Amino acid sequence: MNEQIAKIFNAMAFILEGLNVPFKPRAYAKAAEAILALDKNVEEIFKTEGLVGLKQISSIGQNLAEHIEEIIKTGRLKEYEILKKKLPVDIEELSSIEGLGPKKVKILYDKLKIKNRAGLTKAISGHKIAKLEHFGAQSEANIQRGLKFLKTNTSRVPLGYILPLAREIEQKLSQVSGVKKVVIAGSIRRWQETIGDIDILAISDQPKKIMATFVNLPEVQSVLNYGSTRSSVRLKINMDADLRVVEPKSFGAALQYFTGDKNHNVIIREIAIKKGLKLNEYGLWRGAKNIACQTEEEIYTSLGLNYIEPELRTDSGEIEAAQKHQLPKLIPYGSLKCDLQTQTNWTDGEYSIEAMSRAAQKAGLKYIAITDHTKTLGIAHGLDEKQLLKQCQEIDALNAKFIKEKINFKILKSAEININKDGSLDIADAALKKLDIVSVAVHSAFRLSKEEQTKRIIRAIEHPLVNILFHPTGRLINRREPYELDMKAVIKSAAANRVALELDCFPDRMDLKDTYVREAIAQGVKIAIDTDAHHPDHFKFLELGIGTARRGWATKKDVINTWPIEKLLSWAKK
Ligand code: DGT
Ligand code: CA
Ligand code: CA
Ligand code: ZN
């Protein structure tokens, strides 16, 4: 149900934007995002708590809550049906083409009656788009490139949006009688930032039972394959899931095989062959003798390697490091003490500083930084110097309150300060000096040339009061490309100026991504793992950041959120 609602809201955002309606598109898009990020089914919420429950969801007000109610009760939304008539195109197809926004889609429909990719392809081959006002030959070429890109890139889903569902399926399967073990393998086990399909392995005394449960799950749309040891289904969210039941004695070999990734597996098999052995999903074999198969550890050890954590299995040096016993001790899950990027109802969050703080306490954190937007970010009602200082007073009062309540938790004064187009900051130094930690970010002028963008960001990094650069590349997975940036130069400057780079772990950001994390820490740059929370539920995304940091070979000491508050504060003072 969540996916269905999000899909409708996203489609409405698209049409409304095509129709040039102000504000509303963003409201619908944000609502869709919030619903996708939920780990509860909205139907469940509505059943137990009604409209009031729905309104507690991030970005959902009265009107949207009523929309959700209507979809739950009738399976459709009248307002959407009416909108659809105004732009009756295949939004899913057209919106996934880079260079083709809602406004262009509307013109293409109005002028050329283009409804889908097939129509678009035809119009391009007749050079009809180049002749349109506001388009031209360049624009036609861009769309053509977008179409090609699409053919080779089927849509993958950010891990954070799949994980709750995968875990729910794992949970349901674990409860079937006869089941001894259920493990999610594949890209999810490797904490890859996007997921193609869900791979599940199980051990069971009664394979038929778990298979029957699997193909009949309420999340299943259709059954692609139904066997006694292997089945595949298409889920309602339009993603496939595979379940394999394996023998306990070959579980380790199967897990190693189905965890991947493919490149890693290929090299591991070659190493086995060089040792006169053979590795497959049933075991590690010397002739007909199975010498290691129950655990992954056994297999790696038998091949002369240290155990390699799933997050590292990408064939990018981990196997060599395992041979030389030089693998890093990765940062453990659950080891973060703070979140250094959170927004409140002072700007575009919806909850008070106190509510966000209490939620952070519940999530096991010891301190958080409040980082509302600053003045040049008009859409989020950014704070000016005066308001920031006023917020500092509220934080002082809340910290005093926590001491009184004997709660071991502290709120740090901070902000998500805008980097102006020229690399200067939009808040004066005198106010910055009052903050515990100074974090900066780009929210405008995304299209500068690579040289200008790099220069701009480096100027901000060189500002003597700056501590962290938030979401350094600005990408949104499946929605916005990163801005043009010389990351090597940015990393070098961050190292020289002792500025941390953020790993913003909101699911569709994951920015820095894994490979940049690795480059950064190799240069001695510290990483800050933050959720960018706009809602109390969002602290759960921290684990995604740890997953990606581990993929970037990060150890505990590379991540400033593992530090006790005193250490962080003295580091922030520079
Ligand atoms: P995904 O689903 O695209 O997000 O990525 P994965 O890694 O989950 O890939 P998937 O689902 O196609 O296959 C799961 C694992 O099975 C994969 O990580 C490694 C293993 N595997 C699949 N195909 C092959 C293959 O042709 N050769 C080898 N060595 N391993 C394979
Ligand atoms: Ca997979
Ligand atoms: Ca698969
Ligand atoms: Zn931001």
TrEMBL record:
Signal peptide residue numbers: none
Coiled-coil region list: none
A Gene Ontology biological process term: DNA repair
Catalyzed reactions: DNA(n) + a 2'-deoxyribonucleoside 5'-triphosphate = DNA(n+1) + diphosphate
Domain DNA-directed DNA polymerase X: 1-314
Highest taxon listed in the record's lineage: Bacteria
TM region(s), chain numbering: none
GO MF: DNA binding; DNA-directed DNA polymerase activity; phosphoric ester hydrolase activity; zinc ion binding
A GO term from the CC aspect: cytosol
Pfam families: DNA_pol_B_thumb (PF14791), HHH_8 (PF14716), PHP (PF02811)
Keywords recorded for this protein, A-Z: DNA damage, DNA repair, DNA-directed DNA polymerase, Nucleotidyltransferase, Transferase
Residues annotated as domain Polymerase/histidinol phosphatase N-terminal: 338-421
EC number per UniProt: 2.7.7.7
Protein name: DNA-directed DNA polymerase
Taxon lineage: Bacteria, Candidatus Magasanikiibacteriota
